[in-house]
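Q: what does this look like with AHM bound?
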Amino acid sequence: MSQKNQTLGEFIIENQSSFKYSSGELSRLINSIRLAAKVVNHEVNKAGLVDIFGSAGDTNIQGEDQQKLDVYANEKFINAMTNRNIVCGIASEEEDYFVTINSQDENNQNKYIVLIDPLDGSSNIDVNVSVGTIFSVFRRVTPVGTPVTIEDFLQKGDHQVAAGYIIYGTSTMLVYTTGDGVNGFTLNPAIGTFYLSHPSMEFPEDGVIYSVNEGNYVHFPQGIKDYIKYCQMEEGDRPYTSRYIGSLVSDFHRNMIKGGIYMYPKSSKNPNGKLRLLYECNPMAFLAEQANGWASDGFNRIMEIQPKTLHERVPFFVGSKNMVGKVEEFMKGDKT
Ligand code: AHM
Ligand code: MG
């Protein structure tokens, strides 16, 4: 029985057997993400010292090259997973193509592939706003021991075996699911340990927060314009409150706790929206559904979309069930 104050390490061991493909490998994978998260957290927390230590491309006072934090995070997460012989392939929002791991080794029995957005919302770093890491885990579909192929990565979100995010915020948290609910762990930075602080997280079925970049309003489809007007109209608990950090992980996290919807619709500027199906939408959709929420592209369930390319984008609506349902109703009436 999981309990508050349990460490992430204890939680992983205790829950390993409840995972249907349990072999310990997935536990080791989550462990490697936990370790990389701590390293990246340390670096993200120092970001404000950039004027003292030097910015990307500079050499710092100790003679070390300074990297952009998203490049740094990408390296740390990929290294943590690669060096431990856990996964057979990784695709990252930071890389053009997927990385194959130990493909030549016939004894390589690694079954998992990972898709990762190492530092989402990184344009917020300069202004001290929370950013996040998002990850999605699948079992490979090609035979174990052979090189991974694009087919292993282009799976529907429905086939995810785990997904999660790390939020580098006022506290650093790791929130993840292996298909058995969503649990959140908060880092105690003094001792470098994550503790179970938010067991069984759930979106309230309804909420009063809508999160969208309203600066794009005139470019949105009519259905979304109508929904935004609906949110602003006086009736019942409306007008709703608008909260938009512009950092998906942070907006999602707040909405999951308080009840709300995050939207990145298509627009005349971005016909497929902005967010990436594989690195951002699928993992957040899996978490949302595991937390009693919902995720849609306005018409279809996100996790049923068949991906065609690694970096494809998709309109994204995620959050409290009834709110996402309402957007779908408005989009049905949209003839634009
Ligand atoms: P990124 O992957 O380049 O960081 O972009 C994703 C981010 C999300 O975290 C955030 O919700 C969105 O972009 C904000 O976009 P915009 O500035 O267009 O509102
Ligand atoms: Mg991103």
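The CA atoms of residues 71 and 309 lie 22 Å apart. The pocket of magnesium ion (ligand 2) is lined by residues 93, 117, 120, 280 (CB under 6 Å).
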